[in-house]
Amino acid sequence: MPPSSAVPEGPGSVPGDLREGYAEIGGQRLHYVEAGEGPLVVLLHGFPEFWYGWRRQIAPLAAAGFRVVAPDMRGYNLSSKPDGVHAYDFDQLTADIAGLIRERGAESALIVGHDWGGSVAWATAMAHPEVVERLAILNAAHPRKLSQGLHHPGQLRKSWYFFFFDLPDLPESIVHANHWHFFRHFLHDAHPAFTPEETDRYIEAWSQPGAATGMINYYRSSVRTSPKKSEAALRPIKAPTLVIWGERDRYLGEELAEPDHDDVPGLDRVERLPNASHWVHHDEAERVNQLLIDFFAPARPAQD
After folding, report:
1. What kind and span of H or E run contains 62?
2. C-alpha to C-alpha distance for 145 and 150, rounded to whole angstroms
3. Residue 39's closest CA among 71, 18, 69, 19?
């Protein structure tokens, strides 16, 4: 691996042994942080986070014997922010992840995804099964379940912002207003609450040129993709799969947690955390970390 610089210390920084780098993949530049040595774990953040959303997972996973890579997804923070809604279609997003795994010198990885990162993780396991050794999903519905859910008024009410974000230009104006109040509001469910220093790190990421549009374009692409195309992309996921679900999720109904057996025949289990919000990896970091370490243990080489 080429050497990369350490991330500067700052408010809420992770320890100084974190490495920082950029991966050139298919014309895009993905920023990532990396820690540890061992089997590769890739952590895919959701909306409206960036690599920093995994700050409570990176060091524990590295200490458990894994090499952890947490990228900024395209459109976010320091990664490329390509123009146009189609640049955020799932085939582009999954190619990023498959390319990142190979660029980091691995043939496959243990993938963890939360929220939008979970949606991309599901899609990567379907489109590029050869790069997914094990799959862990945090509060992200399998695409078939989400599609079914969006036919019910209760889930539609929870997902109203999917359709608001599809409007041209207006969402960008709204999210910038009042010191990013709209984006900050999504984080309010976290318990314990994000500190002012942590919130400042998010605001810094959202304020990167083009980031607001890039983040919103995930929703625009999703809403504009035809149901026929989405259905055609579904494939059974053979990789061993763990779903971790915070049941106090304000955005996704708990009935969306368990995928159909035919879609995920390799499902290990759904681990429900009754007191965790959508931000399950923040709310119950120690529990989530232990679940991930235990689930990924078979990937570690046997100790002499």
Report:
1. helix 58-63
2. 9
3. 69
Q: Give all strands of the β-sheet with 67-71 in edge-to-edge order.
A: 19-25, 28-35, 67-71, 40-44, 109-114, 132-138, 241-248, 267-277
247 φψ region: left (φ > 0), alpha (ψ -120 to 50), beta (else): alpha
Rounded Cα–Cα distance for residues 183 and 7 (Å): 25
Active site residues: 115, 219, 278
pLDDT at 12: 40
CA 145/CA 168 separation, integer angstroms: 28
Share of the chain residues as helix, strand and coil, in percent rounded to the nearest 5: 45, 20, 40
Work out the number of other CB atoms within 10 angstroms of the CB of residue 79: 25
pLDDT by 10-residue block (mean), the chain, 304 residues: 38 65 96 97 98 97 97 98 97 98 98 98 98 98 91 84 90 95 94 95 97 97 90 94 97 95 97 97 98 96 65
pTM of the predicted protein model: 0.93
3-state secondary structure of 12: coil
Per-residue confidence (pLDDT) for residue 14, from 0 to 100: 46
Tokens of 232: 């055609």
DSSP per-residue letters across 117-171:
HHHHHHHHHHH-GGGEEEEEEES---HHHHHHHTTSHHHHHHTHHHHHTTSSSHH
Rounded to 5 degrees, what are φ and ψ at 98? -60, -40
